[in-house]
Amino acid sequence: MGRKRKNLIYTYFDYNENNKTSKCLIENCEQVLRGNHGANLMRHFYTQHRRLHDQILQENNKNKENVSPHKHDNHIKVMKHCCQLVTIHGRPFSILEDNAFKNLLSLIPNSSPLSVNIKNVKTMIQEHAYDIRK
Ligand SMILES: [Zn+2]
């Protein structure tokens, strides 16, 4: 699974899979760098296109502020609902491993469906000391 690339620096480069190089898309520059490591690309901008570099840095920081807490929020909510399915509604833990349930979770934006599993939900239930209905 590839990690999502939020860093705007990637929009300023054209990555060539074949020879593993990134071409700077700034007019009159078009310098070719090896690989597509974000830090290397940023260093090129730092030395060659300082003003843009600062803008990208600012935008990246903005994105972090907007995206991270939201993502975190939804995941915690999903986990809570899963705990309640088991504790309040008395559903078996196996519901968490059902394909239909996993597909349902994948429809929720900014959640982390892969980390919703029996082990993690059990841990959360223990940590929050939910009562499991017998
Ligand atoms: Zn450049």
Quick recap of the structure?
The chain is mainly alpha-helical. Helices cover 51% and strands 8% of the residues. The model has no long low-confidence stretch (mean pLDDT 86).
Description:
This protein is mostly helical and 134 residues long. The chain is 51% helix and 8% strand. The protein is built from 4 helices and 3 strands; from the N terminus they run E-E-E-H-H-H-H. A hairpin with a 4-residue loop joins strand 1 and strand 2. The protein is elongated. Zinc ion (ZN) is lined by residues 24, 26, 29, 31, 44, 48-49.
Which features does this protein show?
single chain; mainly alpha; 134 residues; binds zinc ion; Double Stranded RNA Binding Domain
Characterize the overall form. elongated
Q: What is the succession of H and E elements? A: EEEHHHH
Query: Care to count the β-strands?
Result: 3
User: What is the CA-CA span between the terminal residues?
Assistant: 38 Å
Bound molecules: zinc ion
Lateral arrangement of strands in the main beta sheet: 1-2-3
How many helices? 4
Helical proportion, percent range: 40-55%
Number of domains: 2
The largest sheet, given as strand count, sense and whether it forms a barrel, is:
3 strands, antiparallel
Rg calc: 22 Å
